[in-house]
Amino acid sequence: VSEWKRRGKYLIASLNKQSNFPENNNCLTNKNNGYLIIHLRMTGYFNWLEVKQPPCKYTRVRFFDKNKKELRFVDMRSFGQIWWVKEGLNPKEIISGLGSLGPEPFEEDFTLKYLKREFSRRTKSIKSVLLDQKIIAGLGNIYADESLFEAGISPTRSAKTIKQKELIKLR
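The structure corresponding to this sequence follows.
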């Protein structure tokens, strides 16, 4: 793993192949080897182990480094997912949810104008709209609830009824 990124609720690890080429005076070179994409869902988590121990019954995937240290993906309810997207392929084209994410709350595209446009088209509850990853990436139940509470907006209210003043506070 050469780099970790996050997009919405997806963790994205860039993978590199290391090669030792004698013609380059034994220099180590890195070559892109695709991506490992993880979505933890509700109960998934990673556990790093430096000392060997037996896996629990919820261990789904085990990764080992060259020193036999272990990274485990543990998921009690088996909702989490892991994809390996090989080199040369675009993860957004392989994983439909990743390619259809809306802007994240701290991105430049997350403006009042954007929110007003998206909310004005929707009759669903404001909470449902906030949880829709195609509209706003990365928001979960807790952030939606806390944001609505702080803005003084009922979660059951229709999204298109939110006024400009409330929208400013919600954002």
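The beta strands are 3-7, 10-21, 27-39, 44-49, 59-64, 70-75, 81-85.
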